Amino acid sequence: MPETASLQPVEAGLDALLEDVPVMPAENLPCSQAARRVLAGDVMARLDAPPFDNSAMDGYALRHEDAGRTLPVSQRIAAGARVTPLAPNSCARIFTGGALPEGADCVVMQERVEITDDGIRFPDNIPFHDNVRLQGSDVSAGRPLLDAGTRLDAAALGHLAGQGITEVAVRRRPRVALLSTGDELIEPGQPLAFGQIYNGNRPMLTHLLETFGADVTHLATVPDDVEGTREMLRNAAQQTDVVVTTGGVSVGEEDHVKAALESLGRLDLWRLALRPGKPLALGRLPDGHGGETRFVGLPGNPVSCFVGAWLFLRPLMGALLHCPELAQLPRLSAHADFSTRTGPRRHYMRVKLAFTREGIVAHAYPDQKSGVLSSCVGADALAVIEPDADIAKGDVVDCLWLRGD
Ligand SMILES: Nc1nc2c(c(=O)[nH]1)N[C@H]1C(S)=C(S)[C@@H](COP(=O)(O)OP(=O)(O)OC[C@H]3O[C@@H](n4cnc5c(N)ncnc54)[C@H](O)[C@@H]3O)O[C@H]1N2
Ligand code: MOO
């Protein structure tokens, strides 16, 4: 059988993985703990923002018809101060954020006036509402403030606080088990014997999963035998929403993950037309309560794990959290600073991007093999090179942006 026979397209893998994914239940959280969490429902504005007409500048409030006149100052309005209606034929000293007094309709910044013995001399032609921030011009009470599915970034948290909101309903973070396979693995901190390697995939994937919104609750190293692997998969699937394994999905006698998955649950797809990550396995495990836990078996090579996480774990978290921003990686076009030929698999090359006057240039790390993690360090994007393509330097390539978080 040719090496590439029965390789499935990446899209088929994603379809199988995301089919009927349940959405996480909602939980209420104080806003102070809700950074990066995904809103479970729309949030409506309770207040107008700004809540009252106020000044955008330090200066003087007046009626715009009084442009060109010299007026006495009848009151002083600092931010937070009470105000009285503006007396006729006068102006008010006002500071940024101060409430516009009734009767005034514009503000002139202090640099544009002249202070004379008779009062403040104003320039000619002051536009109506000049330097006034009108009530409700940012947000109107009763209108949508933030949509369900929004990931709470800094501005969204500021928007909530601006409304006096202290608690929000967000999606519970999916619980993920991250199981490493491989008798050669040991944890950093232990002495390294010949033939052993440190488990680098665990912290890398833990960080990526947390960035994608997951709660990595189970970490374990699985023994290289079918029975031990079965036991660990069974237990993990009963306590989490997603089980991720690394290694053990290729064709060697020591690769037990697929067999264990098939005997416990269901293998949806195995062997994809992608490089790196060909032996990636997708499936489902019984959750012990009549439902299913999603299973993603990443190949052990570190770059296959890195790329597999961006291509499969991130959209999976997007579906579980019902978050469009997570579900799809942003795409951009760049000029390749490299040449390459692909075979029957789509190649996801790790690139650094340079934003130049002439456009975006993708620089590829010279060694793109799946064991070379240096190719991922500092990568801004994955350049997507279709199968059987011949890319010359300068050609435009499609890239998936990895820096959105
Ligand atoms: N005869 C064939 N051999 C292989 C094929 C094939 O088609 N025919 N596919 C190759 C491809 S492509 C990949 S990718 C790898 C994937 O193999 P496994 O998923 O079974 O992974 P392992 O063999 O367990 O490990 C591969 C590699 O990665 C290292 N590794 C594993 N876990 C970690 C970890 N947590 N941290 C750091 N490094 C890790 C492991 O030591 C191996 O060097 O199979 C090819 N073989
Ligand atoms: O498909 Mo593998 O990740 O190239 O070594």
UniProtKB/TrEMBL annotation:
<dbReference type="Pfam" id="PF03454">
    <property type="entry name" value="MoeA_C"/>
</dbReference>
<dbReference type="GO" id="GO:0046872">
    <property type="term" value="F:metal ion binding"/>
</dbReference>
<comment type="similarity">
    <text>Belongs to the MoeA family.</text>
</comment>
<dbReference type="GO" id="GO:0061599">
    <property type="term" value="F:molybdopterin molybdotransferase activity"/>
</dbReference>
<dbReference type="Pfam" id="PF00994">
    <property type="entry name" value="MoCF_biosynth"/>
</dbReference>
<dbReference type="InterPro" id="IPR036135">
    <property type="entry name" value="MoeA_linker/N_sf"/>
</dbReference>
<dbReference type="InterPro" id="IPR005110">
    <property type="entry name" value="MoeA_linker/N"/>
</dbReference>
<dbReference type="Pfam" id="PF03453">
    <property type="entry name" value="MoeA_N"/>
</dbReference>
<dbReference type="InterPro" id="IPR036688">
    <property type="entry name" value="MoeA_C_domain_IV_sf"/>
</dbReference>
<dbReference type="InterPro" id="IPR001453">
    <property type="entry name" value="MoaB/Mog_dom"/>
</dbReference>
<comment type="function">
    <text>Catalyzes the insertion of molybdate into adenylated molybdopterin with the concomitant release of AMP.</text>
</comment>
<dbReference type="GO" id="GO:0006777">
    <property type="term" value="P:Mo-molybdopterin cofactor biosynthetic process"/>
</dbReference>
<comment type="pathway">
    <text>Cofactor biosynthesis; molybdopterin biosynthesis.</text>
</comment>
<dbReference type="InterPro" id="IPR008284">
    <property type="entry name" value="MoCF_biosynth_CS"/>
</dbReference>
<keyword id="KW-0501">Molybdenum cofactor biosynthesis</keyword>
<keyword id="KW-0808">Transferase</keyword>
<dbReference type="InterPro" id="IPR038987">
    <property type="entry name" value="MoeA-like"/>
</dbReference>
<dbReference type="InterPro" id="IPR005111">
    <property type="entry name" value="MoeA_C_domain_IV"/>
</dbReference>
<feature type="domain" description="MoaB/Mog">
    <location>
        <begin position="177"/>
        <end position="319"/>
    </location>
</feature>
<keyword id="KW-0479">Metal-binding</keyword>
<protein>
    <recommendedName>
        <fullName>Molybdopterin molybdenumtransferase</fullName>
        <ecNumber>2.10.1.1</ecNumber>
    </recommendedName>
</protein>
<keyword id="KW-0460">Magnesium</keyword>
<keyword id="KW-0500">Molybdenum</keyword>
<dbReference type="InterPro" id="IPR036425">
    <property type="entry name" value="MoaB/Mog-like_dom_sf"/>
</dbReference>
<dbReference type="GO" id="GO:0005829">
    <property type="term" value="C:cytosol"/>
</dbReference>
